[in-house]
Design goal:
The structure is a homodimer. Chain A is an alpha/beta fold and about 220 residues long. In chain A, about 35% of the residues lie in helices and about 25% in strands. The structure holds adenosine-5'-triphosphate (2 copies) and magnesium ion (MG) (2 copies).
């Protein structure tokens, strides 16, 4: 489902060159639920952004669902991303001018065959799942940290994507809510066959997945 | 050191009234290191913002270091905050146009008797403590999530404040780096007598403090 071959990612600032990903070769099968762990700064978010086609590698290729996406043009890439991927960002990236409900509906805004009322209904169901029905009309700056995280989660699952990329989805949640979130992901994986890649610093959460991939200094170490 | 009496905080949106803090009476002694735990959305950040004089309660009074701060004017409040408090925000609030080093130096910019070179030296020491010496010239948007969190931590400790308010300071850190951060806080508490209030979702971290205060739905429950 996700195949990374010889992926390199180098960042350059005026003074420092950082090899964020170094010859990464990684395969994730359709329907797998894997966790990615490693020290702060070792390349996990960079890896997820490249898998999610939000950033391009300095070298190497990616294929998603058997398609050589590294060669796609912007429009084709955006289309593919919208149909196939759900992304939970480490810093949420909610739209401050939109209400919680509108934020969650966003992925379905561009999808053919989904009416306004269908979109609203699915957004409300997604918010119900993360316990935020009472916050639909709030704006992101009126929410707690963990509530923002949960809106990001609801937005990532609403489109029933085939692949979910979750960057530390429980970092700002208490253990009870964290369990509910991991269970949402486990269910999507079990009942819908959703392929899930979850970055986490939480060993307990990682142990609930099928495979843990460990990174250190831009390279896979296990 | 920190005394909250009958604190109330009510938020109102167009449709919903939220009693974020409900008759909170809380005392924290000089030199204490307490943890605050509770479900996502139960009022922890609101509590810390009020303790840190960043937000005013709807009702009730606060006294910090024996002074009735709720009655201070803006200028006096800002002065008191800058001298006595160090704040680690749940969403970091780094300044995007400033380098990491300049971000960390900020609290000392307004302090009399601290030269530019003294400020630079102390900022580098603080960054050294959180393992970010190699990122001094980076800008916040060139950092990983956990690196941003660590810059926020360095900025909070550089001024040797008497009180540190830490809102989930290890949420985006791996266990090794998280341990280093809690050890920095434990040392400040033990050797400098710094009063520390730390919100955390991590039971393991909370157990390293002297007292755990639990909140639920805006009220203290233990
Ligand atoms: N500006 C605001 N306007 C309206 N409601 C608000 C505002 N800020 C916070 N709230 C609400 O007040 C409640 C408490 O928020 P707070 O940020 O203190 O929670 P928290 O305990 O820190 O949660 P978390 O663990 O998720 O960070 C939440 O239900 C939130 O939706
Ligand atoms: N735009 C950028 N410019 C320069 N360096 C960058 C940029 N983005 C990331 N980096 C660097 O690349 C490295 C990897 O960053 P990444 O965000 O992938 O780490 P991470 O494993 O997700 O860390 P964390 O657990 O703290 O979130 C870091 O050392 C970071 O400083
Ligand atoms: Mg990251
Ligand atoms: Mg909070």
């Amino acid at each position: 489902m996700i195949q990374l071959s010889n992926i390199e990612k180098v960042y350059r600032t005026k003074t420092i060159e950082t090899i964020a990903l170094n010859k990464v070769n990684l395969g994730i099968n359709k329907g797998e639920f894997v966790a990615i762990m490693g020290p702060s700064g070792c390349g996990k978010s960079t890896l997820l952004n490249i898998m999610g086609l939000l950033d391009s590698p300095t070298a190497g290729t990616i294929s998603l669902d058997g398609q050589a996406v590294t060669s796609f043009g912007d429009k084709k890439l955006a289309n593919f991303r919208n149909k196939k991927l759900g992304f939970i960002f480490q810093s949420y990236h909610l739209i401050n001018d939109l209400s919680v409900l509108d934020n969650v509906e966003l992925p379905l805004l561009y999808r053919d065959g989904v009416s306004g009322s269908e979109r609203r209904k699915r957004a409300m169901e997604a918010l119900e799942k993360v316990g935020l029905s009472a916050r639909m009309k709030h704006y992101p700056n009126q929410l707690s940290g963990g509530q923002r995280q949960r809106v990001a989660i609801a937005r990532a699952i609403i489109g029933d994507p085939e692949i979910i990329l979750a960057d530390e989805p429980t970092g700002n949640l208490d253990s009870v809510m964290g369990e509910e979130v991991i269970n949402i992901l486990l269910n999507l994986n079990k009942t819908d066959g959703t392929t899930i890649v979850m970055v986490t610093h939480d060993e307990h959460m990682a142990n609930k997945t099928q495979r843990i991939i460990r990174f250190f200094d831009g390279q896979q170490v296990n």
